[in-house]
Amino acid sequence: MEKLVKLAEFGNYGISVDEAAGHLYGINKKAPKTVGFLFGFDKSAEGKEYYSVDMPYYRALQELGVNVLFLDYQTPLEAFAVCDGLILPGGSFASPEEFYADAEKNSVETQKLPPRAGAYLDLIEAALLAGKPILGICAGAQMIAGRFGLKLYRSLQGIEKYPHKTSELKAHPVVVIKGTELYDVLKKENYTVNSRHREGLLPWSQQPESEILLYAVSPLDGIPEAWGFPEKKILCVQWHPEDFDTSVYHWLENVL
User: Is the pTM of this model over 0.90?
Assistant: First the structure.
């Protein structure tokens, strides 16, 4: 696997989309297991497109005792075939219209999704079919929830009683449900997470029936903050653990 380069312009690691074609990029530790991590995306002031991995993600992945293979949007399934597990990170991109509880004009239909969103959905299906564990972070968690029939708000503004999305480094409390896999990982019921998501799931009482289980909730406003599917080894968190506590990442390493 080839190594990513530092992208000083964005403060992260990555490679130009043109240069990535036909190559496999990753973190090779000569470990017995390999995890696939779907690339992020950046565009320079000149319009050049880059696959990228934000610095906090890169640091968290370096901690793990597994190889990491970064997956592009053009041929993600081909590379994922050699992986033992999957991480779907956060990001800002259009989700399928049917994932939302509220209709909107000029929405994006599933068949017209941009390549990044399509790669998320294709990888989720491939992982489920192969029985490979999945860790979903923020938008990655939302895509998994939508795949299993759960519904999203396009914006939590006017609904939230805590700031779930801020331009500042703020945080809010969550309550982790005892007996869940997440509680086994964090070892605590009261936890504090960063506020970095504009969209979010409807409260669990308003959700359609699903195989997904609720793992953590924001008190007062009832916004779900973590969920999962133990039998299929799926864990999803709405926050960004790479910024402050990487124990959630080690969950994936431990279930491989």
Answer: yes
